[in-house]
Amino acid sequence: MLVSQSEQNEKDFISLAEAAKHSSYSQDYLSLRARQGKLLAFKFGRNWKTKIEWLKKYEKENLDFVTEEKIDVEKFNYEYELNIFDKLLKEINLFDLQKIK
Hints:
The protein contains 5 helices and 3 strands. The chain has about 100 residues and is mainly alpha-helical.
């Protein structure tokens, strides 16, 4: 069976879901970094794929951001939004207190 050049090339790549298994980063974070052009990756159809050596190179260059636990982007965004909401509530309360004085 003949394999097209694109199919042969695609076999050299791993999905970001698979890459996340070999990394301290989550699939969502790797996808973000791929879209930003920070992680070398290509789209095959609608899926981002990278090479294991590119992932290791990215990790090596970004050691400051590697943690023992995978980065949970949704949890990070939720906590960030809660922090902003909390600050906003404090500002509103402070504003209301100033009106009373």
